[in-house]
Amino acid sequence: xxxxxxxxxxxxxxxxxxxxxxxxxxxxxxxxxxxxxxxxxxxxxxxxxxxxxxxxxxxxxxxxxxxx
Length: 68
Fold this sequence. Notes:
Blueprint: E1 2-9, E2 14-22, E3 25-30, E4 40-41, E5 46-47
Keywords: Hydrolase
GO molecular function, one term: hydrolase activity, acting on carbon-nitrogen (but not peptide) bonds
InterPro entries: Metal-dep_hydrolase_composite (IPR011059)
């Protein structure tokens, strides 16, 4: 899958470009659009890695207490 015309959020920069994904893995990105007819148009939207919620202040309700 190729997605053109997106803002790619990188570690230290944001670039306008295209992204290639294969088998659920990012294979490549480029600042120029792909000319392949199957490329999707991202319509200038933001594309960033999935985020994971790590806020766990009530996690202790679900874990057994340690024996002393």
